Amino acid sequence: MNKIPCALIGSGNIGSDLIYKLRRTQHLEPVWMVGIDPDSPGLARAKELGLKTTHEGIQALLPHLEEDGVRIAFDATSAYVHAHHSELLTAAGVTMIDLTPAAIGPLCVPPVNLEEQVARGADNVNMISCAGQATIPMVHAVARVQPVAYAEIIASLASLSVGMGTRKNLDEFVGTTSRALEKIGGAARGKAIAIINPAEPPLIMRNTVHCRVEGTPDQQAIDASVTAMVQEVQKYVPGYRLVNGPAYDGDFVSMFLEVAGLGDFLPAYAGNLDIMTAAAARTGDLIAARMLADATKEMSA
Amino acid sequence: MSSLDGRKVLVHDMCLRDGMHARRHQLTLDEMVRLATAMDDAGVPLMQVTHGDGLGGSTRNYGFARHSNAEYIAAVAGAVKRARISVLLVPGLGTMAELKEAHEAGASSVHVATHCTEATVSPQHIAFARGLGMDTTGFLMMAHMNSAQGLLEQARIMEEAGAQTIYVTDSAGYMLPADVTERVTVLRDGLKPETEIGFHGHHNLALGVANSIAAVAAGASRIDASVAGMGAGAGNTPLEAFVAVAERMGIVTDIDLFAIMDVADDIVVPMLDHPVRVDRESLTIGYAGAYSTFLLFARRAAERYGIDARSLLVEMGRRRMIAGQEDMIEDIAMTMAKQRGTFSDAASRLQSPA
Q1: Which among B212, B158, B168, B207 is positioned nearest to B11, based on CA atoms?
Q2: Is B21 noted as a catalytic residue in this protein?
Q3: Is residue B261 domain-shared with residue B302, that is, in the same domain?
Q4: pLDDT > 70 in chain B, percent
Q5: Is the ipTM of this complex over 0.90?
Q6: How many C-beta atoms lie closer than 10 Å to residue B210's C-beta?
Q7: Same domain, B51 and B178
Q8: From start to end of chain B, where are the E strands?
Q9: A130-269: which CATH topology?
Q10: Which H or E element spans position A193?
Q11: Which end of chain A has a smaller Cβ tally under 10 Å, C or N?
Q12: Does B346 touch chain A if contact means CB atoms closer than 8 Å?
């Protein structure tokens, strides 16, 4: 066995896009999709792609976990039901990758702390928010050069790519992202701003990151660190682009980014959704690699 | 006598909020109190007090204010005798926690603002404001970017969430009187009779007063204006001019005309660090339909990167940038400067490695 079977909870746009990304990973094999609507086009599509599906929710998946060898599950439902899903699945030995804002488990941004989270072996990791995935690598890139007293990010999202879940909980979206700028990005204080733009044709996701550093910015070191980090993110989000910056103004350093999606299932402008599915797939892949390595060790022991 | 004889209009001052843009959010507490007290004495019944971008607005993107919103609100609340205080809350920027804090500091009214097509982000904040017992307005910004019918659909989302007033907000100062008449009429006909309609104008095409009168004629009962027009772009509808026209038409505002003229000339004008007027940039904003607040940001970026401010504003309009996208002004300026070969940064080296 060189791949870990995994399940997708939620048959919406995110879950649908995730199937394509998981199929391209080295160590993951998507085998189940769980929905709650018999007429879900997502479930029909998953079935066509060869996945087993159910529209009867998480309970219908539980009896199949063992026989199908499911060890990892991706939850793309909502913060409200995630806790319930996580409880049932982690009890059955399944590691959860949470794409909702529930944030039960440790927060994960792949190029910043994925290896650390995998080493710790957490049974639930949270992907924060699209704005967090897009901007925290930049804050971290500055913070690893010199202390960041304040990080502020502005995420501009195409209206069509922002679902009702986020709209109903915009305070939560900015709150979770702000805290993650501090906790994972390394800023002493974080502030996130979300702008929803309805332009037609839809605008590609943009993110602006402002960092106030302590002392005079070490421009050469920051330029190098930011450039290296952009290339690191591009490994799993090819459409991640530094459009302008780092721009320096007093003790402020600013980066202007664009995030285009791969256009797997979601349209390219929805880079905000794509960076979530790409980060989740990357996270799952590394966790699966470790599971496979552990299994090899056990066999040879 | 005009057909509007006897109509009552609530005039809502914007000096201490929209006016903050003109002063880069640097008004002192003393200046705020002096202005608020004078407006209160002249009979201004409602005044908005916050950072120009509202609660949560004090940021790198919009400019850090001299004081916190709570400090400004508490200072004004402690000084006025009759006037009520309102705040601006843009979901995505400000939060319900900040609204609660503003309410505790003395604010009793709120504009919950969204772009004119994105009202679905507002119900939670509107319901929360009503829960606090606040006079709650749904404030549809950049209203020229939606049709009258489209605006009505958005207004209904806010009304259903509990908004007692819906504003047609001409953030760009782009609308012509007929545009205002059409939108206000459709809202007046389509919303509940007890829901009030308001209009917030900008004077970029020098139509602030004419548009506000058109709104009143079509059924609006609240008008945002600013003494001496102190506000973003070419400023808001000049409050004292609106009061004068209202008086001529028999519209009742309860504001003392001569007293408010004195506030404008004796207090506001000396406070300005640049004249707030129709000039080539603010006129460009009104002409192109860009967000009025972009004015000073465009001037700064233009100077820094050697680009004409008007071409920046036109490009912002062309890219359909909306309220809050100030970050894109510098971004566009840098991109334009790179195209001219006058500027480079790590991003340009990354894209075309030497």
Answers
A1: B212
A2: yes
A3: no
A4: 99
A5: yes
A6: 17
A7: yes
A8: 10-13, 46-48, 84-89, 109-115, 135-141, 165-169, 196-200, 222-225
A9: Dihydrodipicolinate Reductase; domain 2 (3.30.360)
A10: strand A190-197
A11: C
A12: yes
Q: How far apart are CA A51 and CA A30, in angstroms?
A: 7
Domain, as residue range, for B226 = 10-271
Domains in chain B: how many in total? Answer: 2
Are B101 and B241 found together in one domain? yes
Task: Report the alpha-carbon distance of residue B44 to residue B84 in Å, rounded.
Answer: 9
pLDDT surpasses 50 at B354:
no
The last residue of one of the domains, among B204, B239, B271, is B271
Q: Which residue has the tokens 């879900």?
A: A40
Query: Would you list the domain boundaries of chain A?
Result: 4-127+276-300, 130-269
Give me the total of CB pairs closer than 8 Å, taking one residue from chain A and one from chain B: 114
Confidence band (pLDDT; 50, 70, 90) for A184?
A: very high
Q: What residues of A are in contact with residue B124 (Cβ under 8 Å)?
A: 168-171
Give B149 or B295, the one with higher predicted confidence: B149
**pTM, full prediction:** 0.95
Q: Provide the mean pLDDT of chain A.
A: 94
Same domain, B266 and B328: no
B118 and B48 in one domain?
A: yes
Domain containing residue B67: CATH number: 3.20.20.70
No. of helices (H) and no. of strands (E), chain A: 11, 11
Choose the catalytic residue: B12, B21, B200, B203.
B21
Going by pLDDT thresholds of 50, 70 and 90, the confidence category of residue A252 is very high
Judgement on whether residues B24 and B80 belong to the same structural domain of the protein: yes
Rounded CA gap, A196 and A205, in Å? 10
Residues B125 and B245 in one domain: yes
Residues from chain B that touch A247, judged by Cβ atoms under 8 A, are 330, 334, 345
Q: What is the DSSP string of A228-282?
A: HHHHHHHTT-TTEEEEEEEEEETTEEEEEEEE----SSS-TT-HHHHHHHHHHHH
Are B180 and B312 found together in one domain?
Answer: no
Mean pLDDT for the stretch of residues B87-94? 98
| Rounded distance between C-alpha atoms, residue A243 and residue A250, angstroms | 21
pLDDT digits (tens, 9 = 90+) for B226-273: 999 999 999 999 999 999 999 999 999 999 999 999 999 999 999 998
Quick one: pLDDT at residue A78?
Answer: 86
| Residue pLDDT, tens place only, A34-79 | 999 999 999 999 999 999 999 999 999 999 999 999 999 999 998 8
Q: How far is B96 from chain A (nearest CA, A)?
A: 7
Comparing alpha-carbon positions, the chain A residue that sits nearest to B335 is A244
Q: Name the superfamily (CATH) of residues A4-127+276-300.
A: NAD(P)-binding Rossmann-like Domain (3.40.50.720)
Average pLDDT of the residues of chain B: 96
Tokens of A139: 């804050």
